[in-house]
Amino acid sequence: MTRWLLIITVGVVLGAIVHLITIMLLPRTATLDAYARLTAMTPVNAVMPLPPPTPDSASMPFMDPAFAAAICRYDLSRGPLKFVVPVSPAYTSVSFYTRYDIAYYAINDRAAGRRTIELELMTPDQRAELPDDEEVTAADRLIVESPTTTGLIAIRALAPEPGLMPAARAALAAARCTPQSAPVATR
């Protein structure tokens, strides 16, 4: 009896270890992840609107047709980015992902509390190089630290009615994701 119990326990432990290793390695070995799919259709450090999804095709899986979507594929190796997107009439959200599709930050228009979502994106090393300015407070300057030098910024604007889709697309068309040569103090 104890022999069978030992065999079952060892089998369960080995199965759990294999399962965890597989789950941890799968994102790194996937060849058609979001970043790879968008590489062909989006420039680096620029906002690119995604085409609306249709039943037969969509740029990304599970896209909601009530949202206009745009992507900024970023590379912070040459310096930080300045990111600005005006809010749409209904709802606007911005999500930040690493190269391997791990979400690390998100903000929406209600949290921003302004007519634009404006922030600086940089690596922890670039943030450490910023001068300490006592006059600039956290309320004046939103800085997001990226854990990797490359990744994606997904921008979505809601159009609760089909007639509001042009306004949502216009808000995304005005979004900017521009590199900065040196850290810049705002205001």
Q: Could you characterize the architecture of this molecule?
A:
The chain is built from 5 helices and 9 strands; from the N terminus they run H-H-E-E-E-E-E-H-E-H-E-E-H-E. The protein is of the alpha+beta class and 187 residues long. The protein has 2 domains: 1-30; 34-55 and 62-179, Immunoglobulin-like, CATH 2.60.40. The strands form 2 sheets. A 5-stranded antiparallel beta sheet has the order 1-2-8-4-5. Strands 7-6-3-9 form a 4-stranded mixed beta sheet. Strand 4 and strand 5 (103-108) form a beta hairpin. It starts with a helix and ends in an 8-residue tail after the last strand.
CATH class of the largest domain: Mainly Beta
Mean pLDDT: 86
Strand content: 25-35%
Number of helices: 5
Total separate domains: 2
Q: Determine Rg (CA atoms, Å).
A: 21 Å
Morphology: globular
Reading the helices and strands in chain order gives HHEEEEEHEHEEHE
How many β-strand stretches? 9
Percentage of residues in helical conformation: 25-40%
Profile the largest sheet.
5 strands, antiparallel
Oligomer: single chain
Q: List the uncertain runs.
A: 183-187
What would you say the CATH architecture of the largest domain is?
Sandwich
Major sheet: order of its strands?
1-2-8-4-5
| Strand-pairing-aware structural class | alpha+beta
State the CATH topology of the largest domain.
Immunoglobulin-like
Distance between the termini: 74 Å
